[in-house]
Design brief:
This protein is an all-beta fold. The protein has a single domain, classed as 7 Propeller (Methylamine Dehydrogenase, Chain H), CATH 2.130.10.10. It has no helices and 31 strands. A hairpin with a 4-residue loop joins strand 8 and strand 9. The radius of gyration is 19 Å and the shape is globular.
């Protein structure tokens, strides 16, 4: 098995940094929009091109642990330390329905492919399945420990998956477990759902979604993988390893490392592609970084962290004041203001 990601020979530029007052937990992306869940009670909505704040979703009363867009971007579901799950109408930025039933923080939420069900996983060791329209509870699944991830198969609302204690489990429409069980800590599907990427310790495996044939597999040096995502065209996979994001080309059975992004001071908590050539990463204590893929200076000192793409030439950094819901751009170079889905099928 090849090992890649050890020596940092290629360094990619960060062209924009967005700083928040709150610790970041997770990002969700759809249609040039990024939802940010953090230790705030609010969900921050960003324009994925400019980095500017476009909305604040207010309704939770404690940390927001998870956010997940529907595939069409018209809805968003969120889970919080306040033990509730909220379903948001993104046309009005208002709560359509609030779901009650968990007794501890909700760590993961998912929307079925037919937009009829949501499924959250919680620190109370359970998964609930609710009817979005009526609020009816279909079933509750009890697990051995905290449910760190729940996801519907992207093309089949009859299949549900969860991760608990680094084990991946599959469930049918009635909440019955379907064997087998697999090891894994994070999973992501390609946009066309034909491939999946599985993070398991220091190994990343890409498989055909239907046949389970291994398309590519490689070992990652240094720290364990924590997050991964496919590019919109399915050609690239970004993987978070500690505070570094690596991007591999997976168009052949021998993946090639094409980019290394090094600028976060702390481990990356979430990654999303905003275009085939743009990656967005989140890290503690409140840093969102926008990266350009394909510009590869070999000397990290030569990277201009204050540069911006032609789409927004005047913005070098954005400070988001979540208390009042405004974005304050700066036009001074290198200024950073001071002021946290995946699907699986085996």
């Amino acid at each position: 098995m090849p090992m890649v990601g050890g020596a940092r020979t290629k360094w990619g530029p960060c062209f924009r940094t967005v700083s928040l007052n709150d610790y970041l937990l997770v990002l969700s992306y759809c249609n040039n929009t990024i939802a940010v869940a953090s230790t705030s009670e609010d969900i921050i909505i960003l324009n994925a091109i400019t980095g500017s704040q476009t909305a604040v979703l207010t309704g939770h009363t404690s940390w927001v642990r998870s956010v997940n867009f529907s595939s069409d971007g018209r809805s968003l579901v969120s889970g919080s330390n306040d033990t509730t799950v909220k379903f948001w109408n993104m046309q009005t930025d208002e709560v359509f329905k609030t779901f009650y039933g968990h007794t501890m923080p909700v760590f993961s939420v998912s929307i079925s492919a037919d937009y009829t069900r949501i499924a959250p996983g919680s620190e109370d060791n359970t998964i609930h399945s609710w009817n979005i329209q009526t609020g009816e509870l279909f079933y509750t699944i009890e697990q051995e420990d905290t449910v760190s991830y729940v996801g519907f198969f992207p093309t089949d609302p009859q299949l549900l998956f969860s991760i608990c204690n680094d084990k991946v489990l599959q469930w049918d429409i009635d909440g019955h477990q379907i064997p087998p069980t697999h090891d894994g800590t994070y999973i992501a599907f390609s946009p066309d759902h034909t491939q999946l990427a599985l993070c398991n310790g220091k190994v990343v495996t890409v498989q055909n979604s239907n046949s389970r044939a291994v398309v590519a597999e490689w070992a990652v040096a240094n720290n364990d993988t924590s997050h991964c995502c496919f590019s919109p065209d399915g050609r690239l996979i970004a993987v978070a390893v500690g505070a570094t994001a690596y991007v591999w080309n997976i168009t052949s059975s021998n993946p090639s490392l094409v980019e290394t992004f090094v600028d976060h001071a702390n481990p990356i908590t979430s990654l999303v592609f905003s275009s085939p050539s743009s990656l967005v990463s989140a890290s503690f204590p409140g840093s969102i970084k926008f990266w350009k893929i394909g510009i590869l200076p070999t000397d990290p000192v030569a990277i201009d962290l204050g540069s911006t793409p032609p789409t927004s030439p005047s913005i070098q950094s954005v400070s988001l004041q979540t208390e009042v819901g405004i974005a304050v751009p700066s036009n001074e170079d290198r200024v950073v203001a001071n002021p946290g889905q995946a699907y699986f099928h085996f």
